[in-house]
Amino acid sequence: MASLNDMREQREKANGELKKLADVITERRSAGKTGADLWTDADQSAFDSQSKLVADLQRNIEAEERADALNNHLAKSAEQRGQQTRLGRTDPRLDDDIPANHAGAKYGDIFNDRDGARVYARREEQRALAFHAWACEGRAKDRITDAHRKAVHDLKADTASGSLEFRGLSNEAVQGLRGILSGNNSVENRQRAYGHLAQLEQRTLGYDQNSDNWIPTQFRDSFEVAFHGLGGVLSLCDVLITDSAEQIPWPFADDYGNEGHQVDEDTAEDTDGTDAEMVIPKLQAWDFTSGFAKVAKALLANSPFDLATLLGAVLGERIAKAMERKLTVGDRSDTLGGYLVRGVSAATVPKAAIASLSKLQTLYWSVINEHRNRGTLVMHDQTMAMFAALVDSTSQPLLSFGMGRLQIGKDVSVPYRISNYLPYADSGSPLEIAVGEKPIAFGDFMQMKVRIVRAIRLERMNEKFAEYHQAAFIANRSGDADLLRSTKTETCPIKFLTGV
């Protein structure tokens, strides 16, 4: 496989070929050429080939960069723990970094004295060892040391059980976390999020207030940051974390179409009045699973601390993706109410020309002012790329992008969010969507009410992949969602375009 630098050079070369093609097209347009003389079949073939190459290289480059970052993180955390072992025991100083904290925080950022830092570090070490012992119990018992057994004994951890359940973050903590991540899972935001959680851990003593006192903090934090930091539409919705999985009603009134009036002493008040439409949706707790996360037996030999961090991140992101999919297309039949099902169609768009500025503007203005002012545009990244490729008669981009907003008209810019669970034009020539598909949505996604159950369940599969020398883990979490809307089409908070 090519090295990271080689792939970067190949990407730059492919981008250079695309730039040359763009220059050729500009010259032809200046010479007055149109139609097939302006854009030939050979041009289309070259464009498709180089564009695909750039996209493939970008994916591979990002994967390699993430792998490098992971390796650097593991090496750094191992080095930090080694430096903080004094006289055979974990004994950090206040100016030492907190290992695997991601935020680059030091013990002194959270603790006022070394006693507090020492207690925290040793407690986390014991939790990580107990969790690692639980993970190794089925497929890698030879990796369990006396230090593991002591941690299991001291914490009274039941490592023989194939499943365990613990509580995720509280509703208050999640709201703070979502405010930091803001739908943007950048390195900087993740660092701030881990710092925020570290502060909460110190202020509330975290798990010591419940029965989950042997689940590593870094597992829970990695799970929650991955879950709430995925981005997409879930980060736009109104989320409530509940301790219970019982059905909960969420009453609301749609009164956007009504208004009051001035009192007229000569005119009797209308005794019939106008009723607000009252709706009381009930939110359930549908179960979502991560699916099997397979871990090689050899990988279980890695640091207990790293296993907790990596496994938490993988499982949290998988479940968030599962919920994001149903949040988009769920039909409310034993599942979430997706906005492409519970919303309404604002207009139709030709299936082979979904990147239409006029249709985009129609969609924008179809949403009533109360929802439009808080609205966000949502589409697949391939659909967004089609809009980005639109040019005017002078070959200038028709739309401008910046700071997470899309300029769709003079003095009209709209926040946008990418969600790759919407359909996009991916077949035919020209590319088109299927009739009836809904490629673009717009509206107030805070009217999507999402209920997440705090409990997280984790299972260890001992024999499922034994012949492959692998252990497997599955996480489950429950939740539900629905769009708060009345039966009135005109006041629906989320609308979409439909292909014809």
Q: How many helical elements?
A: 14
Mean pLDDT: 83
Secondary structure: number of strands: 20
Question: What is the overall shape?
Answer: globular
Low-confidence stretches: 204-211
Structural class: alpha+beta
Question: How does the major sheet shape up?
Answer: 7 strands, mixed
The rounded distance between the terminal residues' Cα atoms is 44 Å
* Rg value: 27 Å
What fraction strand? 15-25%
Give the % helix.
40-55%
Could you give the topology of this structure?
Blueprint lengths: L3 H27 L4 H4 L2 H43 L1 E2 L2 E2 L16 H4 L3 H23 L9 H10 L7 E5 L3 H11 L5 H18 L12 H12 L9 E5 L5 E2 L2 E3 L22 E3 L2 E2 L2 E4 L3 E4 L7 H26 L9 H4 L1 E6 L7 H10 L2 H4 L3 E4 L1 H8 L11 E3 L2 E5 L2 E7 L21 E4 L4 E6 L1 E7 L8 E14 L10 E6 L1
Parallel strand pairs: 4-17, 11-20, 12-15
Antiparallel strand pairs: 1-2, 3-18, 5-8, 6-7, 9-19, 10-19, 12-16, 13-14, 14-15, 16-20, 17-19, 18-19
Task: Report on the architecture of this protein.
- This protein has helices at about 5-30, 35-40, 40-85, 105-110, 115-135, 145-155, 170-180, 185-205, 215-230, 305-330, 340, 355-365, 370, 380-390, and strands at about 85, 90, 165, 240, 250, 250-255, 275-280, 280-285, 285-290, 295, 345-350, 375-380, 400, 405-410, 410-420, 440-445, 450-455, 455-460, 470-485, 495-500.
- It has about 500 residues and is of the alpha+beta class.
- Helix 1 runs antiparallel to helix 3.
- Residues about 205-210 have low confidence and may be disordered.
Question: TL;DR?
Answer:
The chain has helices spanning 4-30, 35-38, 41-83, 107-110, 114-136, 146-155, 171-181, 187-204, 217-228, 304-329, 339-342, 357-366, 369-372, 381-388; strands at residues 85-86, 89-90, 163-167, 238-242, 248-249, 252-254, 277-279, 282-283, 286-289, 293-296, 344-349, 376-379, 400-402, 405-409, 412-418, 440-443, 448-453, 455-461, 470-483, 494-499. It is α+β, with helices and mostly antiparallel strands and 500 residues long. It has a domain at 4-83.
